[in-house]
Structures are given as structure tokens and as C-alpha cells.
Amino acid sequence: NLSKEAFPLLGARNSNQFEQSMTATEINLTADELTKLDALSSISLGYPHDLLNTVRG
């Protein structure tokens, strides 16, 4: 399952690397795995974003 917000970028220098990269499109993650990855990769924007977010509502 590919995310709607991300897509793979290939930087293959030869056909073998390209073939190896294409196998990544065969990976299917469960909804639980995607949720865990999202939680692990989330970025806290911190100050001043958090402050501005409270002002804007």
C-alpha cells in the first residue's frame, strides 16, 4: 500500500539496481503497521508553531 502523501524515488545507476528498487512496490503494510510507522516518524513542530496553533484555534 503506497501512501497518498509519499511515493518512491528511484536513483538507480543500472538495471540491476532498478529491478531491486521495483521490488519495494510489492510490499504491503497493514493498517496497524502504517499507524505505527506514522507515529514513529511524526515530527513535533514545537515553538512557535504550537503557540500559533492555539491562537488560530
Shape: elongated
Head-to-tail CA distance between termini: 34 Å
The count of DSSP E runs of length 2 or more, i.e. the number of strands, is 0
Overall mean pLDDT score?
84
Q: What percent of residues are in strands? A: under 5%
Give the helix/strand class: mainly alpha
Number of helical regions: 3
The secondary-structure element order is HHH
Give the C-alpha Rg.
18 Å
Q: Segments where pLDDT lies below 50 for 5+ residues?
A: none
Q: What share of the residues lie within helices? A: 40-55%
Main β-sheet: number of strands, strand sense, barrel status?
none
Question: Which features does this protein show?
Answer:
single chain, 57 residues, elongated, mainly alpha
What topology emerges from the helices and strands here?
Layout: H1 15-22, H2 31-41, H3 49-56
How would you summarize this macromolecular structure in one to three sentences?
It is built from 3 helices and no strands. It is mostly helical and 57 residues long.
